[in-house]
Amino acid sequence: MKTRFYLFLIAVTILHCSQNESLTYDIVIVGGGTSGTAAAIQAGRMGANVLLLQEQEWLGGMLTAAGVSATDGNHKLPSGIWGEFRDSLYTRYGGPEALFTGWVSNTQFEA
């Protein structure tokens, strides 16, 4: 799988070089899992020109693509990107009680 990803990066580089274009980014993040996506969002909010590279068709890693869509750990973290995400889930589903739908996690949702 890593070989396929590296081939993708090489293909993107060749494509841009063949167009005689030079692209410049303040930050390049390789991997669109939960951490990479959060880093890209925050860097963009802070004004950085960000390139986020991900080999699959979705972002969020196991948080959104594992077929479970459940978070582990302390679901009551009060701030940051997690707090925004959690609050948007509360709004969408009607509050924290609506997310306590299984034994896997206190916060479960549809991906």
Compute the number of strand runs.
Answer: 4
Q: Over the alpha carbons, how many angstroms does the gyration radius reach?
A: 17 Å
* SS content category: alpha+beta
Count every helix, treating DSSP H or I runs of 4 or more residues as helices.
4
Order of strands, widest sheet? 1-2
Q: Can you tell me the overall shape?
A: elongated
- Residue windows where pLDDT falls under 50 for at least 5 positions: none
| Helix proportion range | 40-55%
The fraction of residues in strands falls at 5-15%
Give helix and strand order, one letter per element, not per position: HEHEHEHE
- State the separation between the terminal residues, measured CA to CA: 23 Å
Which sheet architecture does the biggest sheet show? Answer: 2 strands, parallel
Overall domain count: 2
How does this model look, in words?
By secondary structure, the protein is an alpha+beta fold. The chain has two domains: 43 residues, no CATH class; 45 residues, no CATH class. Strands 1-2 form a two-stranded parallel ribbon. The relative contact order is 0.12. The model has no long low-confidence stretch (mean pLDDT 76).
Search tags:
2 domains; 4 helices; 4 strands; alpha+beta; single chain; two-stranded parallel ribbon; 111 residues; two-stranded antiparallel sheet; elongated
